[in-house]
Design goal:
alpha+beta; about 25% helix; 5 helices
Length: about 210
C-alpha cells in the first residue's frame, strides 16, 4: 500500500452531461443510464449502496441489488429482520447510490420506503434459484452465528426435512419512492456535471449543482 494515498486520483474525461440531454422524468433518465451501463458491460450494473438510519439517527450502509424500477420507485428484497429491514421499518427514509466507474457516472436517490405487497414478494422469491431460496429461509440474517458450519447444517437439515420451499413471512420487498434524484457525470479537472431532480408539488424540477 502506498504511504500517501491522498495522491491517488484519476481524471474523468469520457463524457459530458448537459441539461438538454436529460429526460424531464428522472425515472426515464435513470432507465436510460441503466441500459447504457448494461450495454457497456458494467460489472454488477444493478448494485447500489443502500443507506438507512435507526431511531437514534445512526446511519448504516451496504450494497444490495436493484430488482426493478418503475414510476413508483426503486425496488429491492431482503430479510425484514435484518438490520436494514428493522431500520427501514422503524425509520422509512433511505438513500441509494449507484456508481458505474466504467462510465464515470453516479446516481444518488433519496426518498421514503414502504413494503411491497405479498404477491410481488412471492413472485420474486419463487423466481430465485432453489439454493438462494433455501438460504433466505434458514439464515437469521444480521444475527450472530457461531461459525459457517452452523449455517451449512441448517441448509442440510432443511433439505432433509423435505419441507416446501415457500417465502417466509420475514422476507420480502421494499420500494423507495424518490423525492430527490441526482445524476453525476465525471468531468476533467473535477469540474463535474451534476443535475438534481427535486419533487415540488408533485412536479420534478431540474437544477444544475456545482461540483
Amino acid at each position: 500500500m502506498p504511504e500517501d494515498i491522498s495522491s491517488l486520483r484519476n481524471d474523468y474525461i469520457k463524457q459530458k452531461l448537459n441539461k438538454s440531454d436529460l429526460f424531464a422524468d428522472p425515472i426515464l433518465q435513470f432507465k436510460n443510464w441503466l441500459l447504457q451501463a448494461i450495454d457497456s458491460k458494467v460489472y454488477e450494473p444493478t448494485a447500489m449502496t443502500l443507506a438507512t438510519s435507526n431511531l437514534e439517527n445512526k446511519p448504516s450502509a451496504r450494497i444490495v441489488l436493484l430488482k426493478f424500477v418503475n414510476e413508483d420507485g426503486f425496488a429491492f428484497f431482503t430479510n425484514y429482520n435484518s438490520r436494514k429491514g428493522i431500520e427501514l421499518t422503524q425509520n422509512p427514509n433511505a438513500a441509494l447510490v449507484f456508481y458505474w466507474s466504467e462510465l464515470e457516472r453516479q446516481v444518488r436517490v433519496e426518498g421514503s420506503v414502504s413494503k411491497l405487497g405479498n404477491q410481488i414478494s412471492d413472485e420474486y422469491f419463487n423466481s430465485r434459484p432453489e439454493q438462494s431460496r433455501i438460504s433466505a429461509i434458514v439464515s437469521p440474517q444480521s444475527q450472530p452465528v457461531p461459525d459457517r458450519e452452523f449455517l451449512e447444517k441448517k441448509v442440510t437439515e432443511f433439505i432433509a426435512s423435505k419441507n416446501e420451499i415457500i417465502r417466509p413471512d420475514n422476507w420480502g420487498g421494499f420500494i423507495l419512492n424518490p423525492e430527490r434524484i441526482e445524476f453525476w457525470q465525471g468531468r476533467e479537472s473535477r469540474l463535474h456535471d451534476r443535475f438534481l431532480y427535486e419533487k415540488s408539488n408533485k412536479m420534478w424540477q431540474i437544477i444544475r449543482l456545482a461540483p
